[in-house]
Amino acid sequence: MPSFDIMSEVDQPSLRNAVEQANRKVAGRHDFKGTSANIEQADKLLTLYGDSDFQLDQIKTILLPEMTKKNVDVRCLDYGDVQKISGNKVKQEVKVCVGVDQDLAKKIVKLLKDSKLKVQAAIQGDAVRVSGAKRDVLQEAIALVKKQITDFPLQYGNFRD
How far apart are CA 154 and CA 141, in angstroms? Predict the structure, then answer.
């Protein structure tokens, strides 16, 4: 029975390259000379450091286009609160969301069931497996999900015949 998986992945090397490139740009800017402005990456957690809220916003305006250039979808970012640290410096943690969370997975399953397409959807960990009798029906299911779910980056892979 043909099937495919709906998942949300982030290419880690591309993310690392985007962060490194953004750090180089931050280090090269004259308005950031002598400040603590930088971006640190720990697996799926980015930490932005700056001297003020304005500087954090400037770092984001450097980082987001770099991520877009490296084909990292910026919709997968979950911004935390801005925290004050020693002195008048600030930091902000940004989580890189991977995997389809339970709420979104349930929404996808409900969407496919309500569509009356002849497919079965099952939540498997942080992915949704969709199976159907024909490949054409699976392509219709992909088109439907792409059209309806626009606020979160999804990939469709692991096709099996």
Answer: 13
